[in-house]
Amino acid sequence: MSETIQTIKGMYHINTYGCQANVHDSEKIAGILRCMGYLEAADEEEATLILFNTCCVRENAENKLLGHLGQVKRMKEKRPELLVAVCGCMMQQDAAVTRLRQSYPYVDVIFGTFNLHALPELLDAARQGGRQVVDVWESHGDIREDLPVQREHSFKASVNIMYGCNNYCSFCIVPYVRGRERSRGSADILNECRELAAGGAKEVLLLGQNVNSYGSETGGAQSFAKLLREIQGIDGLERIRFMTSHPKDLSDELVRAIADCGKVCRHVHLPVQSGSDRILAAMNRRYTKAGYLELVRKLKAISPDMRITTDIIVGFPGETEQDFEHTLDVVRQARFQNAFTFKYSKRTGTPAASMADQVDGETVDRRFARLLEELTPIAYEISASNIGRTVKVLAEEVNSADPGRVTGRAEDNSIVHFDADASCIGRIVDVRVTGCRTFYLSGLVVRYPNPCGDRISNCSPMQPGLVVRYPGEVV
Ligand code: 5AD
Ligand code: SF4
Description:
19 strands
């Protein structure tokens, strides 16, 4: 047996629910486990440690977890040495922890969002004690800059720029489970981005619940606009993305920075939630329909290629047909490239949970379907407007359904499928768009850059710099 194999402590499998922040936390958990001597298992069957990183933003994420835990119970009956750990946002709620302690005693370790770094001790305690180990902190400690990260990709990477949220939208549980806003120091962020670029990253995704208020605790010394300008200067990085932007904090200074920084992708995710001023006030969003549409106008003025995506909640307490019509009107005026649409989900402990006039399920279903009817043709038109254009696509993965195709993202956030093989993964290729569906484009590689000047790629039959015609193209 080789020395590496002798030191392996176990095999881990992580199930991640929820948003990009959770996905990135799971990369940190994986980093910690790798340092401890764990390797990633191919699947749950091979794992000796199964970890669930949970979400509680809507009820269905919680239900999914509980269903999945039921399956793991059967695995644990067959393999009692299997360790099961549950962490993340849902575990920051007392009721959820109590439920797990009472009804899921086979869960070995429970911890929260504030103490990822404690995982080694918690696992050791669980292994020794044979009892359920619970360690959930009520609030955050100092920002930890020393956690290892096992990143899923080398060519694109998420970077936390801030943690927590101060906004207390009345429907949202996040401020209660992720704590108050804390911004990382810009020097730490820049160092991380530089290291990523040196390691081959082409794209960074700057993460925060509300990136627009980055640095607000520094009295203006640091701001998101300044940060974007600094990251723009990092050699090797080609694309900067960010999420999520709260409309109330999208300043003109930030709009100018987005316009000035060529590496900042022409896509902003700007959750509107509702188009009704009355509902926006009840949601504590602190902007109006007109204010939101004005921001969309300013962003689109940066470039005709600017794409806006959004989040919309249907059926917030008290939402009338008239309120809902305002939401449809925003959809028509803002022309979203895509929208994440949610049925309002009552979250215990939030102000909206105790509001009168909860909307009945049938009405919510009807409005939800109507909303999609309004969104879909617009998304299709935006998608179709790319046909015949050449777009720059960061090639991300071989298409699981068709190994002769690769999937990536264009600068404007469009998903693009194109004929190529795995050798182009991690590179930015020029793709001529030849067709589309509502939520993706398809095309052919026209130019495959060879930035190192090394070999000519076998990614496609074309040589670097060669432009090809596609069937039906008029040249
Ligand atoms: N019900 C439905 N959707 C919600 N979101 C947050 N909380 C709730 C809730 N209680 C949605 C919002 C937010 C996105 C991340 O999740 O649209 O922007
Ligand atoms: Fe939740 Fe509002 Fe904070 Fe977003 S800004 S995380 S919706 S409270």
